Amino acid sequence: MIQQNIVKAIVALVLFVFAIGALGMVFEEEMAAATNWIIGRIGFAGMCLILLVTDTFVTPFPPDILLVLIAKSELAEHWPRYVLVLGMVSVCGGMLGWGIGRWLGHLPQVTRLFGEFKDEHRDFIRKYGFWAVVLGSITPLPFSVTCWAAGIMALRWQTVLAAATLFRIPRFFLYYQLIAYSGEIGRLFG
Fold it and tell me: Does the record carry Cell membrane as a key word (predicted)?
């Protein structure tokens, strides 16, 4: 299962970078105008709020769109600062999601649904839970779902925080680099 998800994540990432590269080559001026317009309307604080909500609650909004906004706007001049802050906000959102999962894990309906699974796989979850959070942290899979599940399965908060911090923040830097240089990568192959 982990191997399949990693392969899917790599394929999704390659397709995403290719799409951004193609769009950046064809619509470079339009993307710059659109991203600067969005940044002008919501600001960086608005971007952080959007990310906090999307990484706390289960939504279909990928955080990589915010990285595109940074890469294709005037924020690109100081990108390391902005990407670091977004990474930290994402970790905070994930931890809030973990808290929601812990709360949900005490509800009778959720206990019935996950209780037997949790009991049967408790050792597996404790042994490999860190790596499950790592997988959710670095892949395009919804990070919030990973964190909610970790909370429901009673994975220790320290484990979730360590996995998210060690892998989610570097993921933001890696994805930013791929997005920021996707136009150059596209030109090499175009």
Answer: no
The string of DSSP letters for 63-130 reads THHHHHHHHTSGGGGGHHHHHHHHHHHHHHHHHHHHHHHHHHTTSHHHHHHHHHHHHHTHHHHHHHHH
Asked whether the beta carbons of 183 and 24 are under 8 A apart, the reply is: yes
Rounded CA separation 111/26 (Å) = 51
Rounded distance between C-alpha atoms, residue 130 and residue 108, angstroms: 26
Question: How does pLDDT run across 52-100, given as a tens digit for each residue?
Answer: 999 999 888 888 889 989 998 899 999 999 999 999 999 999 999 999 9
Distance CA(149)–CA(138), nearest Å, equals 16
* Secondary structure string (H, E, C) spanning 42-77: HHHHHHHHHHHHHHHCCCCCCCHHHHHHHHCCHHHH
pTM, 2 dp: 0.82
Please state the domain extents for the chain: 2-189
Instruction: Tell me the C-alpha to C-alpha distance, in Å, between residue 67 and each of 22, 62, 136.
Output: 16, 10, 18
Distance CA 156, CA 102 (A): 10
